[in-house]
Design a protein that fits this description.
Length: 295
């Protein structure tokens, strides 16, 4: 079982545990803000299931019908997660509006808050694990799951503060108002997840900093070539795709150009782990004015 799969299973387990704890906190207090926290945890469980399915499918090797692999499956999971986050925000807003129209006092608020804080600590630790390891493993599904949990942690802190203030001031409307603020925060988090995933599904180029690294590696390791141009990049899940044209002297043999390409490919894979590289070799009369000059 891969590390990514283990983390996805861990997310599912943590999501179920935290959901149970937060629902107990809601039952103890009757707080609509704590209920909103519990509703978001339902989304955490659903998205953990989606992430688990996605990472399992994405790990399948390339086949005749998918010669470039199944890596993009993780992006579909992230889009689904964003949609579910938006649905959760709508449900929370509805509950909050009902509580504003019909204010109610809180039961056993301090004990319920203590229970909710415990759930938030678990989420905080797990979201840090997901984001750090998801980035190291280049798993969009795990990173999206971690970022959603981070928004959950932030909103839970707000919930705790809002309910505490409502207790101290005796103003029950603070509880549903805080729930509405949580809904807005969740909507923003969902939009960011969907936007990032859609840009990846549309084969958006790698960040400029990564592109600069690629250009530098080509320039430093393509000694014997004239230049490189038409650099194109994209990424799908854990895999980065890089292709470009390499201009070589017309008299260079096929064997020598092949050795040159192997050297550049090796250097790029060292600098950009998980990259798949395609190099199109051309003679020097194909040189272009805007290109990567070789050191």
């Amino acid at each position: 079982m891969s590390e990514i799969t283990k983390l996805a299973i861990g997310s599912l387990i943590v999501g179920v545990v935290v959901l149970g704890i937060k629902y107990v906190a809601y039952l103890m207090t009757g707080s609509v803000a704590l209920l909103s926290d519990a509703l978001e945890s339902i989304v955490n469980v659903a998205t953990a299931i989606a992430a688990l399915i996605a990472v399992e499918y994405a790990s399948r090797p390339a086949d005749a019908n998918h010669p470039y692999g199944h890596h993009k499956a993780e992006f579909f999971s992230a889009v689904l997660e964003g949609v579910l986050i938006v649905i959760a925000a709508i449900l929370i807003a509805r509950e909050a509006w009902d509580a504003i129209a019909h204010p109610r006092s809180l039961d056993a608020p301090l004990a319920g808050l203590a229970v909710n804080v415990g759930a938030n600590v678990i989420n905080a630790v797990w979201c840090w694990i997901l984001i750090t390891r998801g980035r190291r493993l280049r798993s969009p599904a795990l990173v999206a799951d971690g970022k959603h949990l981070l928004s959950d942690v932030v909103s839970s802190v707000g919930v705790t503060g809002g309910v505490l203030v409502a207790i101290l001031t005796g103003w029950p409307l603070l509880d549903p108002i805080m729930a509405l603020l949580i809904a807005v925060n969740i909507l923003w988090a969902g939009w960011k997840v969907v936007r990032h995933s859609l840009s990846s599904l549309m084969d958006e180029a790698l960040p400029e900093q990564t592109l600069e690294t690629i250009r530098r590696v080509i320039a430093e390791n393509a000694s014997g070539a004239v230049q490189a141009h038409d650099l194109r990049t994209r990424h799908a899940g854990q895999v980065v795709f890089i292709d470009f044209h390499l201009i070589v002297p017309g008299e260079m043999s096929v064997t020598d150009s092949h050795v040159l390409c192997d050297r550049v490919e090796h250097a790029l894979r060292e600098a950009i782990p998980g990259s798949q590289i395609t190099i199109h070799v051309e003679p020097e009369h194909k040189a272009k004015p805007h290109a990567i000059e070789i050191d």
